Each structure stands twice: as structure tokens, then as C-alpha cells.
Amino acid sequence: MELVQRIGVPASKIIYTNPCKQIAQIKYAAKHGVRLLSFDNEVELAKVAKSHPSARMVLCIATNDSHSLSHLSMKFGASLKSCRPLLENAKKSHVEVVGVSFHIGSGCPDPQAYAQSIADARLVFEMGAELGHRMHILDLGGGFPGVEGAKVRFEEIASVISSALDLYFPEGCGVDILAELGRYYVTSAFTLAINIIAKKEVLLDQPSREEENGFAPKTIVYHLEEGVYGIFSSVLFDNACPTPILQKKPSTEQPLYSSSLWGPAVDGYDCVAEGLWLPQLHVGDWLVFENMGAYTVGVGTLLRGTQACHITYAMSRVAWEALHGQLLPAEQDEDAEGMCKPLSCGWEITDTLCVRPVFTPASIM
């Protein structure tokens, strides 16, 4: 709340969607004019009624997220059976319930889960109307895919959602539709470059693909300066499988070895990736990971308290050329064209870069 208000977002545009809040956080919301809060149980309702009586509540309902990678309904969301009692208690406590929210969870391969949740939300809206609640907000949650090659494309999910909204919340019904599109927007926006800080070769007792090719059977363990308790935290809670891109393209004649990547923590759970077949790499070599924008650097910062990686911003040649005329005064265009190009263009035209491209430790680009 403090962060978004600091960058100029008005309190009327903020919804505090965590249905399990500390009392201090509820009081902070009340003090700073944030009135939209969510709940999914009687205890939370009572806390808000006491600490923020002017709050307008959004009832978070459970979903069928059995096929999702993240099962949020194990922790959050009221069942349809419990919604009416919660709405009745809100009325008795003079707490206004103004909408419904849900979250399918991340990585859901079944778009129809959204349609079912929207249908469930319609039922809760009708319950609320019967009890005198003026409900006008529907929050569709997040978890939408932000990468190419996802099991279900964003466009497919959007099509199902649009059809369900046309059926249950048609245009002109007076309901504001919200969605939490963080993952969709930022997943592909960041690329991580990180180097190998240590390695160890372990001889295998069992025959392997390498032995069949005439090489000594071994697996190679590579250590990185980031792990699952930092930038690669999505491995733990999002079932992510990071796959590195090698900075140096190997020749087809180089043998491949069974390899694994590990973070710096001194425990056996800090495994970033295993079961990889990579050429012989060395300490100081760089690995590149794409689609590292969601639940990575932000989570790592929270765990450490400081930002450990250096962020370099870049844009495509097409975007640069589209903005070029707006970014530089007309009289500077001619000189700038021959002097310097944005970093992302530099891989194509290093001879005209102001400086050659440089990777920095644990860089996010």
C-alpha cells in the first residue's frame, strides 16, 4: 500500500486482496484511506469490522484449482456453502460487502475453470442482493500466462472469460471487472544472466549415456550465486523448471554431461535445476535464463532485505527506432545515430556501440 501510494496511485484505486491480514495492516489501510479489503472467513470479517468500520469488503471465494500449479484454494477462499452465512454476518456487523473475488492459481491448463468461478460469483452476487448488499465489483484474480508456449494461451483464457462475462455479468449490468495481470505483464520482461562460481565432478557407479559414447561416466554439479531462496524461488512455489541458455554456443562435437545447478545455500534443497545435459562448463562462464520477471528478483529482495542483482534496461531495435524521434531533439538525431545504439541493438552492431556489451554478476535484463 505504501509503495503504490508513493508513486501516486490514489487510495480509491487500491484493493487489499490478501484475505488474511494483520490488525496493524488493517489499521494502516484505514489511516491511509484504503477502503477496499477482501475476506473469506468470520474472524477476518470481525477484525475489519473492529479496526476499519468504514471498509468496503470483497468476498474471496474458493475455486476448482486442482489442475493449477499453485493451489491457492488450499489456503484462501470461502466455499459457496459458507458464503451466505458470511454475508449475513457482514450485514449484522454493518460491514458493506461490495463484490466478489477469486484466484484460479497459476498455470491452470483448463480455461473452463474461470467460467465456473464466474458462474459461482454470480450466485454469490445474488445472495448478496437478497441480503441488501450493493455488489458491483468482480475481481478475476491473476496467474495468467505471460510466456509463449504456455499450455494454454492467454488469448484462449480471455475468450472463455469474455463469454462467461457476457452470460453472467453482461455489459451495462453495473459491475466493474478487475483482474490481477502482474505475471502476464512481467514474466517475459526480464532475462537473468548469472555466472558459475564453483563446480564439482562426481563419478557415477552406474553406466550412463556418456559411457556409451566412450567417456568416463560422471555428473557435473555447478554452483551459482543465486538459488531457490532468492531469484529462483519460483522453483519452490511455482514448480518452475529453469533451463539455461549458454552464452558460448558449444560445437556439435563437444560431449554432453549430466549436469545440475545449485544455489549458494548450505542445504540439500537449494537445487535450481537437475537432469540437464550440458557441455563442460567452467567457473566464470555465464548462463542466461529467460522469462525471469515474475516471482524472482522481487521475492529475492524480500528474503534478503536488499537487492542483490544489477538491473540493466534494454529495448528492441524496432522499439528504439519508434521512440528515437521522441527521445532525442531533432538537431541531435544525426550525431546520435552514428555515435551510439541501445544495448539490445548492440549484439547486432557492436562496431557502433559506445561501449561493448558487458554482463555484470547476477544481472537482470
UniProtKB/TrEMBL annotation:
<dbReference type="Pfam" id="PF02784">
    <property type="entry name" value="Orn_Arg_deC_N"/>
</dbReference>
<keyword id="KW-0963">Cytoplasm</keyword>
<dbReference type="GO" id="GO:0043204">
    <property type="term" value="C:perikaryon"/>
</dbReference>
<dbReference type="GO" id="GO:0030425">
    <property type="term" value="C:dendrite"/>
</dbReference>
<dbReference type="GO" id="GO:0042177">
    <property type="term" value="P:negative regulation of protein catabolic process"/>
</dbReference>
<comment type="subunit">
    <text>Monomer. Interacts with OAZ1, OAZ2 and OAZ3; this interaction disrupts the interaction between the antizyme and ODC1. Does not form a heterodimer with ODC1.</text>
</comment>
<keyword id="KW-0966">Cell projection</keyword>
<keyword id="KW-0832">Ubl conjugation</keyword>
<dbReference type="GO" id="GO:1902269">
    <property type="term" value="P:positive regulation of polyamine transmembrane transport"/>
</dbReference>
<keyword id="KW-0813">Transport</keyword>
<protein>
    <recommendedName>
        <fullName>Antizyme inhibitor 2</fullName>
    </recommendedName>
</protein>
<dbReference type="GO" id="GO:0016020">
    <property type="term" value="C:membrane"/>
</dbReference>
<keyword id="KW-0539">Nucleus</keyword>
<dbReference type="InterPro" id="IPR029066">
    <property type="entry name" value="PLP-binding_barrel"/>
</dbReference>
<keyword id="KW-0663">Pyridoxal phosphate</keyword>
<dbReference type="InterPro" id="IPR022644">
    <property type="entry name" value="De-COase2_N"/>
</dbReference>
<keyword id="KW-0333">Golgi apparatus</keyword>
<dbReference type="GO" id="GO:0030424">
    <property type="term" value="C:axon"/>
</dbReference>
<dbReference type="InterPro" id="IPR022657">
    <property type="entry name" value="De-COase2_CS"/>
</dbReference>
<dbReference type="GO" id="GO:0048471">
    <property type="term" value="C:perinuclear region of cytoplasm"/>
</dbReference>
<keyword id="KW-0968">Cytoplasmic vesicle</keyword>
<feature type="domain" description="Orn/DAP/Arg decarboxylase 2 N-terminal">
    <location>
        <begin position="1"/>
        <end position="186"/>
    </location>
</feature>
<keyword id="KW-0472">Membrane</keyword>
<comment type="function">
    <text>Catalyzes the first and rate-limiting step of polyamine biosynthesis that converts ornithine into putrescine, which is the precursor for the polyamines, spermidine and spermine. Polyamines are essential for cell proliferation and are implicated in cellular processes, ranging from DNA replication to apoptosis.</text>
</comment>
<dbReference type="GO" id="GO:0005793">
    <property type="term" value="C:endoplasmic reticulum-Golgi intermediate compartment"/>
</dbReference>
<dbReference type="GO" id="GO:0005634">
    <property type="term" value="C:nucleus"/>
</dbReference>
<comment type="similarity">
    <text>Belongs to the Orn/Lys/Arg decarboxylase class-II family. ODC antizyme inhibitor subfamily.</text>
</comment>
<comment type="function">
    <text>Antizyme inhibitor (AZI) protein that positively regulates ornithine decarboxylase (ODC) activity and polyamine uptake. AZI is an enzymatically inactive ODC homolog that counteracts the negative effect of ODC antizymes (AZs) OAZ1, OAZ2 and OAZ3 on ODC activity by competing with ODC for antizyme-binding. Inhibits antizyme-dependent ODC degradation and releases ODC monomers from their inactive complex with antizymes, leading to formation of the catalytically active ODC homodimer and restoring polyamine production.</text>
</comment>
<dbReference type="GO" id="GO:0031410">
    <property type="term" value="C:cytoplasmic vesicle"/>
</dbReference>
<dbReference type="InterPro" id="IPR002433">
    <property type="entry name" value="Orn_de-COase"/>
</dbReference>
<dbReference type="GO" id="GO:0005794">
    <property type="term" value="C:Golgi apparatus"/>
</dbReference>
<dbReference type="InterPro" id="IPR009006">
    <property type="entry name" value="Ala_racemase/Decarboxylase_C"/>
</dbReference>
<dbReference type="GO" id="GO:0042978">
    <property type="term" value="F:ornithine decarboxylase activator activity"/>
</dbReference>
<dbReference type="GO" id="GO:0033387">
    <property type="term" value="P:putrescine biosynthetic process from arginine, via ornithine"/>
</dbReference>
<dbReference type="InterPro" id="IPR000183">
    <property type="entry name" value="Orn/DAP/Arg_de-COase"/>
</dbReference>
<keyword id="KW-0456">Lyase</keyword>
<dbReference type="GO" id="GO:0016829">
    <property type="term" value="F:lyase activity"/>
</dbReference>
